[in-house]
Amino acid sequence: MRACFGSVLHPTTASPPLRSLHHPARPLSRLYVPRIKISLATWTNQIQRNRVLKEAVEVETGALEEVPEGGSEIGVNRFPLETKEDGLYSPPKVSNRKKKKRPEESDSEYDRYKLRNGKEVFEEKAYLVGVECKGSTGDTFGIEESLEELAQLADTAGLRVVGSTYQKLASPNPRTYIGSGKVAEIKSAVHALDVETVIFDDELSAGQLRNLEKAFGGDVRVSLAQMEYQLPRLTKMWAHLERQAGGKVKGMGEKQIEVDKRILRTQIGELRKELESVRKHRKQYRNRRLSVPVPVVSLVGYTNAGKSTLLNRLTGAEVLAEDQLFATLDPTTRRVQMKNGNEFLLTDTVGFIQKLPTMLVAAFRATLEEISESSLLVHVVDISHPLAQQQMDAVDKVLQELDVASIPKLVVWNKVDKTDDPQRVKSQAEKQGVICISAINGDGLEQFCNAIQTKLKDSLVPVEAFVPYDKGMLLNTIHQVGMVEETEYMENGTVVRAHVPLPLARLLTPMRQHVASGC
Ligand SMILES: Nc1nc2c(ncn2[C@@H]2O[C@H](COP(=O)(O)OP(=O)(O)OP(=O)(O)O)[C@@H](O)[C@H]2O)c(=O)[nH]1
Ligand SMILES: [Mg+2]
């Protein structure tokens, strides 16, 4: 056994050659996501396997003569795919911690390569350990729920959860965090189940990680949790920027695989700089966008609440919406046109999660900065979730930490179709002045758009401006994004009285002065 990553320990078993790429790491904070989703080990494997897969595709299209080792008889689909009837890949549901191994399930290395979102991942076997310290404040989620969520995250990260345990502690053991009896119990589970990754539901010190690895029987290497967290995000951002900004960012134009190779060669300090540069360019991109004076509405909410589904439904966008945590990693913005012709920009964001630590908030900054520049936040709640209230509280807490609590907010209860009694939920929502929708079947979306419009109006600025006829486009924009109360046609232009978004009001400033000085 070897390696730890965040509070994740990777014991090694007889590994295929690719697994030697594993890089261990340690946690910087109590991070769920980086600890598992962004395992450099998994990620480097993915890159490596994707390369092989890419080569295999080239073989099929005749681009390469040489067949990759071991791939001759299987071609593109040399690794098993799990498909649903509709042909889409469906990851195994792992929220059931007592999942039994199917008799026909083989542990051969090939069987454990799975295709996820078009990428191939090696499914490591994971064992979850939940820890609850008595007297720890602020946690409204119980330990069982925390473990459920951790299992879902592990699934999202491409791990196969083979077991779990938890312990309530009066205070953590300084050497191993959990008690020695628990350590022994986990050790036997690790060996009995051939576990490769042990994930702790809490922050462990470097010393505790070392001791635990030793106790479970491996040598520990500790480093680079931060990098593991940033790498995929960085890559994704590049891809995102490439699509949106048209090739001006450093590294753009590089194929994904080249970016991947370059990142693999890069050290963590350099990566930090790169992330910073991505942030700067995103900001430039946002500034350009802000010069188009359309109000920005951001969808925020707990992960899996249905934000991307709502964006897709309203705009016809094709943002990945999946029953997995953290399906969305970087924001996407689309224009929404309402029936009355008014427009706003709708931004999807990365979902929040309980115990989102300040450090993670900082790391998410690149994406969450979008939120701070919105005219309106739409808090999407999965009202069918048994812990909907706790999730709402967790989101509000993060919004406070992000210092955006002052931005007007509209709360929307989503997935009403999934509740036991949609009618009852709807009337409850009405009483509380909350909009009730189903992003999946479109129920309540008209009411939702009207509510956005009303809320946006509250954030509009009243202006009176003289718009010369040669600036006719501007008048169109005022009609499109603002609310026009009165227009008066003069000899050289139009006097317009309207409520407009702040950026447009700024743009109109010279014309407002014109009004003041004599029209
Ligand atoms: N029944 C039902 N399912 C929904 C509804 N809206 C979304 N879903 C499902 O909920 C799951 C999560 O939806 P996403 O849109 O990916 O959620 P998200 O908030 O973007 O999640 P993250 O990107 O992880 O933060 C998907 O399986 C959707 O199909 C709804 O109104 N009703
Ligand atoms: Mg999403």
TrEMBL record:
Composition bias type Basic and acidic residues, residue spans: 102-111
Keywords, alphabetical: Coiled coil, Cytoplasm, GTP-binding, Magnesium, Metal-binding, Nucleotide-binding
InterPro entries the UniProt entry points to: G_HFLX_dom (IPR030394), GTP-bd (IPR006073), GTPase_HflX (IPR016496), GTPase_HflX_N (IPR025121), GTPase_HflX_N_sf (IPR042108), HflX_C (IPR045498), P-loop_NTPase (IPR027417), Small_GTP-bd (IPR005225)
GO cellular component: cytoplasm
Domain Hflx-type G: 295-460
Residues in coiled coil: 261-288
PANTHER family per the UniProt record, alphabetical: GTP-BINDING PROTEIN 6-RELATED, GTP-BINDING PROTEIN HFLX
Protein name (Swiss-Prot/TrEMBL): Uncharacterized protein LOC105042239 isoform X2
